[in-house]
Amino acid sequence: SSESCVQYPCVYTCNYRRREDTVRCIVANLTDDSNNELTDELMLSDPVLIEESDESDYEDAENWVPDPVDADPEKTSKSRKSSDIISLLVNIYGSKDLFVAEYQSLLADRLLMSLSYDIDKEMRNLELLKLRFGESSLQYCEVMLKDVADSRRINSLIHEQTKLDMNVSAVVLSDVFWPTLKDEKFKLPEQINSVLETYTEGFTGVKANRTLEWKAKLGVVKLTLELADRVVELSVSPAQAAVVMAFQDQSSWTVDALSREIQMTQSLLRKRLAFWVSHGVVQEKDTDTFIVVEEQQHDTTQIEHGYDDLDAEFSEGLVVDQRQEKLQVCWSFINGMLTNLGSLPLERIHSMLKMFAVQGPCGAGGDCSLQELKSFLDLKVKEEKLTLSGNVYRLVKT
Q1: DSSP class of 175
Q2: Are 100 and 133 a contacting pair, CB within 8 Å?
Q3: Rg (CA), the chain
Q4: Of the segments 85-94, 313-322, 336-345, 364-373, which one has the largest average pLDDT value?
Q5: CA–CA distance, 219 with 115 (Å, rounded to integer)
Q6: Tell me, what's the pLDDT at 340?
Q7: C-alpha distances out from residue 11 to 8, 18, 66, 132, Å
Q8: Which residue from 240, 238, 165, 152 is spatially nearest to 199, judged by alpha carbons?
Q9: Which listed residue, 6, 11, 31, 339, has the most CB atoms within 10 A of its CB?
Q10: Alpha-carbon distance 390 to 53, whole Å?
């Protein structure tokens, strides 16, 4: 005799729900090029529109009655919805809004790290996701892709009408529709600034009464470094380019002097100098003094590196973490605490934030965990706005 079987897959959720990157990993696997179960599920010919779990589904659990043994499992109540893997994952690990926000962040990273304006794959993914999450949920993502398509056309027009000393391509963003992007203030080399200014003038010619605001941290710079015995070709971030190009006019720099010259914090400067040391372009001659390595000891004529050189620089993504963004709103509150009290341990800052922030404009920050607050404060230490001694934070004296 035929029997009904349970249609629910066994899913282990306890540890994964606690991890911050679970939803991002699911969304990444859902939209990448590899053939896996999630991408196959996304491409089903008869997809299920995702709906949020309703608590009423479980209110009458005590009165639940199983289906008859001869019932068709494909036609039982809610069987189709409950057997849909993507719907299950959304309801187990978060909500529609959370998954859409994570996809928007992932899409921004992919579009900004791409060295072309090719969006065909992302357009296909977006159309498939619309069938699952609904068109209205993904309107911002649609605008993001339109920005890239429009940028291709605008870029071609600028190159036709404007003479540029370097080959520059730009993605023009509709700021309101993109997630908050990470930014870092530093001084770009004069030859790059000059080209960007010319490009901006060309943009104003194409789009009357509009101008561009450049994000210095974002982008890719293709460099060819001609040294005494070799040529080094690299694709690097603008910040990495700014550091090495400073050695064109001066072959030796101290960390302090170079930090002031390019207006970059010493902690980030050391990280970028370490990158160039690892590629044999500069070396630390004395403590905190770096020089160009014109000739290497071993015999080599050319070193080539691909786009993997950008991995370390952009490993944490280009989009501001939403939790960090909420905590940023509380920064003035934390700043005031440390101004008045001098120095505070992590636990005290956390307890005061939970006690007082909920009544103020940074109430969302009061919900942060101790580890999230520590990551945020450690970031402020890297930005040289705080100092850390033991477990105690204090403001940097200016």
Answers
A1: G
A2: yes
A3: 26
A4: 336-345
A5: 9
A6: 87
A7: 9, 15, 21, 21
A8: 165
A9: 31
A10: 45
Provide the whole-model pTM: 0.68
377 to each of 126, 175, 217, 268, 381, how far by Cα in Å? Answer: 36, 27, 21, 16, 6
Average pLDDT value over all residues in the chain: 79
CB 373 within 8 A of CB 350: yes
**Rounded-to-integer distance, Cα 221 and Cα 275, Å:** 15
Query: Is the torsion defined by CA of 74, 78, 82, 86 positive or negative?
Result: positive
Report how far residue 33's alpha carbon sits from residue 79's, in angstroms, rounded to the nearest whole number.
29
The CA distances from residue 252 to 234, 280, 295, 356, in Å, are 21, 15, 15, 50
What are the helix (H) ranges across the chain? Answer: 14-18, 22-31, 37-42, 56-59, 79-82, 85-93, 96-113, 120-133, 139-161, 190-206, 238-245, 255-262, 266-278, 322-329, 331-341, 346-356, 370-382
Q: If you write DSSP's letter for every residue of 246-307 in order, what string do you get?
A: GGGT-SEEEHHHHHHHHT--HHHHHHHHHHHHHTTSEEEEETTEEEE--S-SS--SEEE--G
d(CA 190, CA 274): 23
| Tokens, residue 213 | 């605001």
With tokens 């409950």, the residue in question is 82
Which residue type occupies 277? V
Counting Cβ atoms within 10 Å, is residue 119 exposed (0-12), middle (13-18) or buried (19+)?
buried
Residue 390 per-residue DSSP state: T
What angle (nearest 5°) sits at the alpha carbon of residue 30, between those of residues 27 and 31? 95
Examine the pLDDT at 393 and tell me if it is beyond 70. Answer: yes
**Local structure of residue 388 (DSSP, 8 states):** E
Name the maximum alpha-carbon separation found in the chain.
Answer: 86
Task: Give the whole-angstrom CA distance, residue 376 versus residue 321.
Answer: 10
> Which residues have CB under 8 Å from 7's CB, separation 6+?
73, 76, 79, 82, 83
Closest CA to 370 of 385, 389, 349, 386: 349
Tell me, what's the pLDDT at 326? 64
Contact 362, 329 (CB under 8 A): yes
**Rounded Cα–Cα distance for residues 295 and 281 (Å):** 9
Report which DSSP code applies to 69: T
Tokens representing residue 58 in the block: 């479980």
CA-based nearest residue to 110, from 122, 101, 100: 122
